[in-house]
């Protein structure tokens, strides 16, 4: 809805109309007779009034411009800042296990992508790890690039096999330590125990606590790890030993004020991310501002054009008949 910053200027409009009507009924020059002009075929018609009414319209529009009409734009919070999130995804060979359809890694990727779609105001980075860890995408609000990069992750994205949980946490913290966000979290998704890397997960979690970063750890997979193996052109399935070190993941989460979750099926994994999404909501200031688009400038242009056109029509285009 249009509003006026200087509403009182609109009171001039009735005055202008009143003066216009008074002046219209008065002639500046008095003629004893206009019969000579009328005999020449000149008559007072509506068209002889067009110029005056255009001038009146221009004056009214200029007065409206003085009142500064404004069109409100979209309202928004006075200041807003989302949460900074690092997502660390295990891409080791065991994530190819087919106990999740089609495998653990694909389900984890899809679930993380759905989580990202709901975090429009948050900066998110992506860390992937196996026997070592590295940053695939730094903190960004460009979630399209983030999702595209996530879609390209596969089990060969890290060329060193193993599960370096301590390294994953450490690299994730390097993305968050310079952040000035009021809330910073790290979500770590893995299906193994720490068997690689030079950094102890407990040491890394203590560093996270010191930095004020909460870690949510998610253990992925059922109680059986079944890996597809290429055997002379045929796919066979092999059950492998080993699995989650749940005590370690619980300790990493608890040390930082986060939480450990176990996802034994795709539905449970989706529910876990939904729970984290609800727990970690971005907080915004409640005081809202509204931006306004000033309409006065365009009205001034229109008003001046009408004035010029009206003066030309009234004084030069039509011969005035008193």
TrEMBL record:
UniProt KW keywords: Cell membrane, Membrane, Transmembrane, Transmembrane helix
Span of domain VWFA: 84-276
Segments traversing the membrane: 6-22, 50-67, 295-313
Pfam families (alphabetical): BatA, VWA
Alphabetical list of InterPro entries matching this protein: Aerotolerance_reg_N, Double_TM_dom, UPF0353/GerABKA_families, VWF_A, vWFA_dom_sf
Classification via SUPFAM superfamilies: vWA-like (SSF53300)
Name of the protein in its database record: Double-transmembrane region domain protein
The organism of origin for this protein: Pseudobacteroides cellulosolvens ATCC 35603 = DSM 2933
């Amino acid at each position: 809805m249009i509003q006026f910053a200087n509403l009182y200027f609109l009171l001039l409009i009735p005055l202008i109309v009143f003066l216009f009507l008074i002046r219209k009924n008065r002639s500046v020059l008095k003629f004893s007779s206009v019969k000579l002009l009328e005999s020449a075929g000149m008559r007072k018609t509506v068209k002889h009034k067009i110029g005056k009414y255009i001038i009146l319209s221009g004056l009214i529009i200029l007065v409206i411009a003085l009142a500064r009409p404004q069109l409100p734009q979209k309202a928004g919070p006075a200041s807003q800042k989302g949460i900074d999130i690092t997502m660390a995804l295990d891409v080791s060979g065991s994530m190819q296990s087919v106990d999740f359809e089609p495998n653990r890694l694909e389900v984890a990727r899809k679930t993380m992508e759905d989580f990202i779609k709901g975090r429009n105001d948050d900066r998110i980075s992506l860390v992937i790890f196996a026997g070592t860890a590295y940053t695939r995408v730094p903190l960004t609000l460009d979630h399209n690039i983030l999702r595209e990069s996530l879609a390209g992750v596969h089990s060969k994205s890290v060329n060193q096999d193993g599960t370096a949980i301590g390294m994953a946490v450490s690299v994730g913290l390097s993305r968050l330590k310079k952040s000035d966000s009021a809330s910073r979290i790290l979500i770590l998704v893995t299906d193994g125990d720490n068997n690689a890397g030079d950094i102890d997960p407990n040491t890394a979690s203590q560093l996270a606590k010191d930095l004020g970063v909460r870690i949510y750890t998610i253990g992925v997979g059922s109680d059986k790890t079944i890996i597809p193996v290429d055997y002379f052109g045929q796919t066979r399935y092999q059950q492998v030993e080993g699995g989650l070190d749940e005590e370690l993941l619980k300790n990493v989460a608890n040390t930082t004020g986060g939480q450990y979750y176990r996802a034994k099926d795709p539905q449970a994994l989706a529910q876990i991310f939904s729970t984290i999404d609800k727990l970690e909501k971005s907080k915004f200031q409640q005081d809202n501002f509204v931006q306004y688009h000033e309409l006065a400038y365009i009205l001034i242009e229109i008003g001046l054009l009408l004035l010029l056109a009206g003066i030309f029509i009234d004084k030069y285009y039509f011969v005035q008949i008193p």
